[in-house]
Design a protein that fits this description.
InterPro entries: ADH-like_C, ADH-like_N, ADH_Zn_CS, CAD-like, ER, GroES-like_sf, NAD(P)-bd_dom_sf. The chain is an alpha/beta fold. It has two domains: 212 residues, Medium-chain alcohol dehydrogenases, catalytic domain (Quinone Oxidoreductase, Chain A, domain 1, Alpha-Beta Complex); 131 residues, NAD(P)-binding Rossmann-like Domain (Rossmann fold), CATH 3.40.50. 25% of the residues lie in helices and 26% in strands. The chain has twelve helices and 17 strands. The strands form four sheets. Strands 3, 4, 5, 8, 9, 16 and 17 form a seven-stranded mixed sheet that branches. It has a six-stranded parallel sheet with strand order 12-11-10-13-14-15, covered by helices on one side. The chain has a two-stranded antiparallel ribbon with strand order 1-2. Helix 8 links the parallel strand 13 and strand 14. The longest helix has 14 residues. The structure holds NADP nicotinamide-adenine-dinucleotide phosphate and zinc ion (2 copies). The site of one zinc ion has 5 residues, from loops.
């Protein structure tokens, strides 16, 4: 067993606090990673506070992990000690169902094994995430990370990056498309970067007036304040796609009205309470709503390689581990620019 230091929540009302546990020994197919940085996703907060139900405690969150390989099992050929490696939102899946076979492990028919707040397939022990000093993961669920980019900026690509890259690729966003990105947080800022990089004309739809200048710096061509009624009216029937990253309850109809004929709202944000789907806004212009969950292993590697080739990283505020509870409070106030990333050196001291 490998003694590991971490931060965990003991229950849905408790702040995160120091916690020690053991990782499994490195198996023949495993990669042991010394965690350098871990991004802070709004999903961490939803699950730590049990906003989606079914949370497993104690919980060590964190699924945007980048670190250095320190040991590999005897069957591992793709990684060696000293390599940079990444772990995203899941660490296993059944491998045999049609979705796993197609590289869409996130949609595994038998349920993927989440990096935290999940149960290991064989032992049924809880999985613990990246707010910790190290992790042991099967090589097939470990990603290669280029040393061309700043590693703290790469960490959020493992969730915020792939969650926005995957659906934008799936619907074929590119030149000639008008794309609205709703919500400028961790996911939203990556959505803007990818949509602009794919050649689309991007409008940031934000509830925060203070984010206008940043939105443009991130690559948005336009900015619209969602509380500005005239502005919103002027964007009626305007977009081909809206990437909806909002984490709090909100009304879909306001934003569906901004879609042109056959336009699509891509839902990636997961508010704790469901939003009603308004029939009129859908039928009037043959609009649709689709959802998307992170991305499979092959596409996550493709996204990481795309980012290395195009010099794309997340804009981050690096924090020490003990700051995490304050970081959560700031996240709830939409005060993140644009991803908190934990420097795990602060936990190893
Ligand atoms: P985040 O950094 O907190 O950003 C969310 C943004 O939503 C905020 O910055 C804010 O942007 C906007 N917002 C928040 N409350 C709002 C409200 N009441 N009305 C309108 N806009 C509001 O969160 P994140 O990490 O990007 O995650 C966003 C959501 O995606 C979360 O629900 C998370 O669980 C989910 N998620 C889903 C997947 C997936 O696979 N589908 C993966 C990761 C995360 P403005 O200030 O610009 O308005
Ligand atoms: Zn996430
Ligand atoms: Zn499967």
């Amino acid at each position: 067993m490998i003694a590991t230091k971490a931060y965990a929540a003991q229950n849905a009302a408790a702040p995160l606090a120091p916690f020690n546990f053991d990782r499994r020994d490195v198996g023949v197919n495993d990669v042991q990673i010394d965690i350098l940085y871990c991004g802070v996703c709004h999903s961490d907060l939803h699950q730590v506070r049990d906003e989606w139900g079914g949370s497993i405690f104690p919980m060590v969150p964190g699924h945007e992990i980048v670190g250095r390989v320190i040991k590999v099992g005897s069957n591992v050929k793709r990684f060696a000690a000293g390599d940079l490696a990444g772990i995203g939102c899941f660490v296993d899946s059944c491998r045999t169902c049609p979705n796993c076979q197609a590289g869409l492990q996130q949609y595994c028919d038998n349920g993927m094994t989440a990096t935290y707040n999940g149960l290991e397939r064989v032992t049924k022990k809880p999985t613990y995430g990246g707010y910790s000093t190290q992790i042991v993961v099967d090589q097939d669920y470990t990603l290669k990370v280029s040393n061309k980019l700043s590693i703290e900026g790469v960490a959020p690509l493992l969730c915020a990056g792939i969650t926005t890259y995957s659906p934008l690729r799936h619907v074929g966003v590119g030149k000639g498309h008008k794309v609205g990105v709703l919500g400028l947080g961790g996911l939203g800022h990556m959505g803007v970067k990818f949509a602009a990089s794919f050649g689309a004309e991007v409008t940031m739809l934000s509830s925060s007036p203070s984010k206008e200048a940043d939105a443009k710096k991130l690559g948005a061509h336009h900015f619209a304040l969602t509380s500005d009624k005239n502005k919103m009216k002027s964007l009626t029937n305007h977009f081909d796609f809206i990437l909806n990253t909002v984490s709090a309850p909100h009304d879909y109809s306001t934003y569906l009205n901004l879609l042109n004929t056959s336009g699509t709202m891509i839902v990636v944000g997961v508010p704790p309470t469901p939003s009603a789907v308004p029939a009129f806004e859908l039928i009037m212009r043959r609009r649709s709503i689709i959802g998307s969950l992170i991305g499979g292993i092959p596409e996550t590697q493709e996204m990481l390689d795309y980012c290395a080739d195009h010099n794309i990283v997340s804009d981050v505020e690096v924090i020490d581990m003990p700051y995490i509870n304050e970081a959560y409070e700031r996240m709830l106030k939409n005060d993140v620019k644009y991803r908190f990333v934990i420097d795990l050196a602060s936990l190893k001291k």
